[in-house]
Amino acid sequence: AAWYLETAFRRHPYFSEYEMWHHICRARRGEPPVPFLSPPVLQPDLYRYYRTLTDIRNGHERRAKRRLETALDRDSHDSLSHHLLERYFDRPLDQRHFFPTPEGL
Prior knowledge:
Blueprint: H1 2-11, H2 16-29, H3 44-57, H4 61-74, H5 79-88, H6 95-98
């Protein structure tokens, strides 16, 4: 998948979503970080994913886990935060992930 994401980034380097996926791929492969071309806050969810990967690589697991839990406190249906907690911190998925809240019905 990295090759496809790299191709999209090379064709559209200033499209913020492609750029964030480019940085995420580099972080997952353990490559050194490169400067951002556009502000990362344009894609807050993907930036949280990138920051989680870089914090884990730099040995700041508690900071990364706390950031994801804070995101879940703000929005209990944040599927990306659920996925990252389940994948990197062995937190099982609970009922809130599978069933809608009463106010959402």
